[in-house]
Amino acid sequence: MYEGIVQELIDELGQLPGIGPKSAQRIAFHILQTEKFDVTRLANVLLEVRDKVRFCDICGNVSEQPTCLICRDPRRNPTSICVVEEAKDVVAIERTREFKGLYHVLGGAISPIDGVGPDDLRIRQLMQRLADNTVQEVIIATDPNLEGEATATYLSRLLTTLEIKVTRLASGLPVGGDLEYADEVTLGRAFEGRREVTH
Questions:
Q1: Quick check: is 13 in a domain?
Q2: pLDDT digits (tens, 9 = 90+) for 89-139
Q3: Are residues 8 and 98 both part of a single domain?
Q4: How many domains does the chain have?
Q5: pLDDT tens digits for 64-89?
Q6: Which of 185, 188, 104, 96 is nearest to 145 (CA)?
């Protein structure tokens, strides 16, 4: 324990996701000991982010305007929507340069333990987007964990009532991984998602 404001800084940093007590302490001391670290700039950027950044009215991605860059891009394919849990997932998929359609950010995943149900997510907004029959395929790209699977199952059942192709991202063995270290679920998924080898 440190006294006063130093402990307050450590406590505040420790509230950020993925930052434990030791990491919070390291960051706090980096700020204190590095003379060229611009604390004012960091504080201003944090305040600016709070003031300027919002969520896209259409897809729920982060944006400084009412609609995000992807939704405004006329080159994107409007017949395909990739459904993700969080805005950070959009960035991950965009880095692959494989997907040219639009996105829909749910704002989380179904998790009864955490009190998150379908009504807490942006599922109603997704259904509204699908109402005009422009979309031909919905790609469900939720995380391959318990909550992500529950969300994917819920969405799949909901979307089968519409005449839209519903697909789920494949999951399985990572490139460069060893079979002996893969868990049963990952190996099972790899078998389910296997494809024919063409010559």
A1: yes
A2: 999 999 989 999 999 999 999 999 999 999 999 999 999 999 998 999 999
A3: no
A4: 2
A5: 999 999 999 999 999 999 999 999 99
A6: 185
